[in-house]
Amino acid sequence: MSQLIVSGMGVVSTAGNDLNTFWDTLVNGRVTYGEIEEFKDDTNYRIKIGAKIKDVSWERNIPDNIKKKYGRAGRYAVSAVDSALKEAGIDASSIPKNRTAVIIGTTMGEIQVEEKITQLKCRSGLEQVPKELFSQYRTDNIGAAVQEAFQISGPVYVVPAACAAGNYAIALGKRLIEWNYVDVAIVGGVDVFSRVAFTGFQRLLSLSPDLCRPFDKERKGLVIGEGCGVLVMEKHGWRKHQNYNKFGSILGVGLTSDRYHMTAPHPNGDGAVRSIVQALNEAELSHKQIDYISAHGTGTKANDKVEVKALMKVYEDKNIPPTSSIKSMIGHPMGAASALELIASFLMLKHSVMLPTMNYNKSDPECEIDCVPNKAREKKMRHILSNSFAFGGQVSSIIIGR
Question: What domains can you pick out in the chain, each with its CATH number?
Answer without folding.
Answer: 4-235 (3.40.47.10), 251-401 (3.40.47.10)
